[in-house]
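Extended Data, panel c. Modelled sequence:
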Amino acid sequence: KPNYQSYATAIDAWSRSAVYESAHPSPVSSSSSGTETKSGGRAKNVISHATKAGFECAKRAEDLLMHMQRMHEQQLQMTEKDGQFDAYNSELQPDTRVFNLVLKAWSIFGGTKASAIRAMRILDLMQELHHGQSMNAPEWQGIVLSKVQPNLQTYKLVIDAWAHVHTVEGPGRAEEILRHLLSLSKAGNLGVEIMPDVECFHIVMKAHAESVRKRRKGDDGSAAVERAQKVTALLDWMELLALRSATSKIRPTTESYRIALSAWVWSNHVDAPKEAESILYRMIRSCDVNNRDAKNAAGNDAITKNKSDSWVVRPETRDFNTVINCCSFARKVGADPSEEDDDSLLQRQIAHHEIFDIAGGALDALLSSPYAQADPASFAGIIRACLNLLPNTDHRDDRVIELFRSAYRTPPSEAPSSRILSTRMRAPPGAGCVDANVLRQLRHALPSTEDYIRVREEFEKYRHLNAGEE
């Protein structure tokens, strides 16, 4: 005779299968997943085999849950006839854990609107069952003990389901649920902890950022900017919640700021460099505050050093490089200046000079940072920014040469790089932060062959001398 554990085990198996099918698409799916119907000479894009298989697995898990609930209700009707009605105790009654298993299947497998809608329906059913069970459920210290009650994991799975929907409305619906969850947690007296955590915010922020990165064809950029602004607004909200309570579990982390940085960089908007710079310096300030608080709490530098690896916010080299590269690829760079009059060309040059100053400020902050070190990508980016943003004059050439000299005089980072570089691309001994990419950018930025050869000879002399001393 099937009992609770029997159904829970089967539901868990189908839920795991849905997750597995989503992460491991079949190698034969490319030939079997499409249709022969063609429109305009191109085959229509249909649901992949992996999505179909994941959908069927999630549906089987939900069907088992619904059957389990029906069997439970039949048992209640039978016991009610015998005068032994007990809505809380039943060997087949589904609980929150079983509902969450089904929600996990719908939230992960495919990222379709249909899966998110099904997840919402399950959440609605859980709320309805919780309300019905609360009437007859036992109490403990004034808290109603109901077997079905949406908890933080429940809402997080529903948020995740909407966050992965590949439509315009997905991230917005995910944010609505997040805000509703925060309102519920403030009301209190729910019996379970549903205060959203940092992960909830990150799920929604990443959904908005991904919609910026995957913006639709023909988008004029306004929608991307709107999404990037929503990411920044969520970051503002996290900072506000952290300030209101010293014990709040919602505090921006390095990942929080990094998501906001990426959203603005992907927007390709004219204001993206300024917004990225603002987020970077907010990240630095937050790191300094956390470091100061850690020192005050520890009482000595030794303890603080031991805790340095667990800092909540700590900018890394790649964060500075993100701002520098955002500036170097600023919008409208490379447009035909012949289509502009003198006034608009002047305004454009002024704007580009301001953007270059942002990139230079990010590099200066990196060089003076106590917790991050410049690398070859930092100098390749700033030289590229110099080439793209400054007018082609002798002053620009002098600036490029100055930056290149700074590159080979800057010691390379001691931390191992996350990038896998070939031997040809790596910086040679004694070259500081100069690798093949920096040399390539230098060649692009110096139109005069004589200047390039002269600077290269200076570099080689310095490198051999530096390598010999080592």
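The longest strand covers residues 38-39. This feature is highlighted in the accompanying rendering.
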